[in-house]
Please model this.
Amino acid sequence: MTGRLRYPGDLSDAHWELIEPILTTRRDQRRAGVPDIGRPPEHNLHTIMDAILYEVIPT
Model:
């Protein structure tokens, strides 16, 4: 993940490796059986999780 400012509350790469399989499996389960139409996701799940943590965890 490059090209943006890192914050102290951002997930480390080691933490992301633990969380990423759970999130991508859930996303794939939700899309299963649905025609693959529409735009592909625009945002990286790692970036989304960092944004959520930035909002909910006080620094």
